[in-house]
Design goal:
Length: 111
């Protein structure tokens, strides 16, 4: 598990993921492991949002911002900017629009 992704998580989420990593040892050497795709990284960020939909089946994400929570439509430019910003904070790189759209489609389906 990438240490940068772990920094975004709440303490209880972080410890749960670390416990999962300890339970599943890898048989491959560290240098042969596949690098996660941009979509995978974006999806790992989205996993820490609470996804839901309203009575009209519009998907939303609840996101922790500093000391409070905010709710944004998944297809809003605000949520997309937040997601791309988190990706940049983790990787110091931008991500392509296909990866963002794939991640938003999955989030939409999960909500």
């Amino acid at each position: 598990m990438a240490a940068d992704i772990l920094e975004l998580l709440e303490p209880e989420e972080r410890s749960a993921l670390l416990q999962e990593d300890k339970k599943a040892p890898s048989s491959e050497p560290e240098e042969k492991k596949a690098k996660p795709s941009q979509s995978d990284i974006l999806l790992s960020i989205i996993e820490h949002c609470r996804l839901f939909h309203d009575e009209l089946q519009e998907p939303y994400a609840q996101i922790k911002v500093h000391s409070h929570y905010e709710v944004w439509p998944i297809r809003s430019s605000t949520f997309k900017r937040w997601l791309v910003g988190r990706f940049y904070k983790l990787t110091s790189k931008g991500c392509n629009s296909d990866a963002v759209n794939q991640a938003l489609n999955v989030a939409d389906a999960k909500a």
